[in-house]
Design a protein that fits this description.
Layout: H1 3-17, H2 19-30, H3 32-36, H4 47-75, H5 81-102, H6 106-128
Helix pairs in contact: 1-4, 1-5, 2-4, 4-5, 4-6, 5-6
Length: 129
C-alpha cells in the first residue's frame, strides 16, 4: 500500500469515529430514547457537541474531494514526495480542524481548513502536471 493510500485510510477511519463524542453527549443530554428516537422538542446538545457535529460534517464533505484525488493519483501511478507531503498536510489539518472547531478557536480553525485545501490542491497539481 502506498503512503498516500495509508493516509487516506487513516483519515477515513478518524472521520468515521468523529461522531462518537457528540453522540455520547446527545445520549447524556437527551437520554437514550430521545437520542435514538425522534422527539418533538429535543433538548439542545452542549455547544462543543454542536460544533463537533458541524466539524464532522465538514470533514465528510472534504474527505470526498481528498479521497477522489488520492485514488486518481494512485490509479495514474503518481506518487512522489509532493503527493506524500500533501497527504500528511491534509491528515493533520483535518485532525486539527476537528479539535479546534470543537473548542471554538476561530482563526486556527480557518487556518487548519485552508491547510487541508492546500493539501488537496497539491494533489491536484501533481495529477494535472
Amino acid at each position: 500500500m502506498s503512503i498516500e493510500l495509508m493516509y487516506l485510510a487513516a483519515i477515513a477511519f478518524v472521520t468515521a469515529l468523529m461522531w462518537v463524542p457528540y453522540i455520547i453527549n446527545m445520549i447524556i443530554v437527551r437520554g437514550l430514547m430521545d437520542a435514538v428516537g425522534y422527539p418533538d422538542n429535543p433538548k439542545t446538545m452542549t455547544p462543543w457537541a454542536v460544533r463537533m457535529k458541524s466539524a464532522h460534517a465538514n470533514a465528510v464533505e472534504n474527505l470526498v474531494v481528498f479521497a477522489s484525488l488520492v485514488l486518481v493519483a494512485n490509479a495514474l501511478g503518481i506518487s512522489n514526495d509532493t503527493t506524500v507531503l500533501a497527504c500528511v498536510i491534509y491528515f493533520w489539518a483535518r485532525v486539527v480542524h476537528f479539535a479546534v472547531y470543537a473548542v471554538a478557536i476561530p482563526f486556527l480553525r480557518t487556518l487548519a481548513f485552508v491547510a487541508g485545501v492546500v493539501g488537496q490542491v497539491m494533489l491536484a497539481v501533481q495529477i494535472f502536471a
